[in-house]
Amino acid sequence: MKRRPVVALAGGVGAARFLRGLVQVVRPSDLTVIVNTGDDRDFYGLRVCPDLDTITYTLANRVRRDVGWGIEGDSFQTLAALRRFEREAWFQLGDQDLATHIHRTRRLQQGASLAEVTAEIARAFELEVELLPMTCDPAATAIEREDGSRADFEEYLVRDGAPDDVRTIDLSQARCATPGPAVLEAIQAAESLLVCPSNPLVSIGTILAVPGIQQAVDLRRDAVAVSPLIGGRPVKGPADRLMRAVQVEVSSYGVATLYRSFVRGLIIDDVDAALTERIEQLGIAVRTRPTLMKDSNVSRDLAASAMEFAKELC
Ligand code: FO1
Questions:
Q1: pLDDT on residue 87
Q2: Are 22 and 113 members of one domain?
C-alpha cells in the first residue's frame, strides 16, 4: 500500500482539534494518524476506543462542540434506561455513539482486528484520513494511586475525577503489545512526522511504549511536536498531575525533556516564550505560536506552522 507523506501521533481531544486544522493545510488523503488505544476498555459489554472515536467524530465534523468528545446533538436515552439496572453507569455513551461501539464489538467478536474495524468506522464517517490504532492488542493504561489502589485510565479520569494522588503510571500492557499493522512502515516512510498536542505520558507516552515505535521515531529524530501545556497547565485533562507524579517539570520544558530523543522542533505557546533558551539547550528548536485552539482558524494556523517547521528542519 502507498504510504502517506504526513504522519501524526495522537491522543484524544487536543489532538483532534489540531488535526481539524491539519486537514485544512494538507490533503486528508496524505495524512496517517497513529492513535493511542491505552484508554480503550469495555463499557456495558461494548468495546469503546475514546481517542479513535474522538478523532473520527471531529474529522467528520460530528463531534460535540462543548466537550470535544461524543456526537453533537446525541441523546442519552439508552444510558438513562441502563441506569435502571446499573446505577454505576458513569461513562456517558450517547445513543448514536453506541452504534459505533456495537459495530466495533460485533466485528471484533467476528474476528476482525481493531485496525480493520477502525478503517471501517472511518469509511462509514467518510474520512479520507487514515487512522491506525497504535496496536490491535490489549494495551490498557493503569494508574496506581498513593493508597495502593489501581484504576484503569477512564476510571481514574472520569469516575474518580483525576485526583492528584498518582504514584505510578503502568504502561506494562502497552510494553507487551505489537505495533498495529502499517504503524512502523508509516513512521519510516513519512516525509513529516508530527506529534499532536496530547498528554505526553498517557497518550504519546503510551504509543511510544509499544515495542518498536520509540525506536522508529528515535531513528529519524526529526519530529515536530506541539506542546499541550500553556503557562504550565494543560488545556484539558490531567497532564499536570501525571507529570508531577513522575517528577517531570510541569511546563513545555518538561514536555521537551520527555521528547528529546526524537523531536527536532517544539511549538510552544507565546506565553511560554521565556522557556525557549532552556529548550534549545536540549538540542530542540523552538517556535512560539498561539496554541489554544479555540476555533478552527487557530487550529489551521497552528497546523500550518507545524508543517512549515517540519519542512524547514528536514
Ligand atoms: N469524558 C468524560 O469526562 N466523561 C464521560 O462520560 C466521557 C464519555 C466518553 C464517551 C465516549 C468517548 O469517546 C469519550 C468519552 N469521554 C468522556 C472522553 C474521554 O474520557 C477522554 O477525553 C479521553 O479518553 C482522554 O483522551
A1: 78
A2: yes
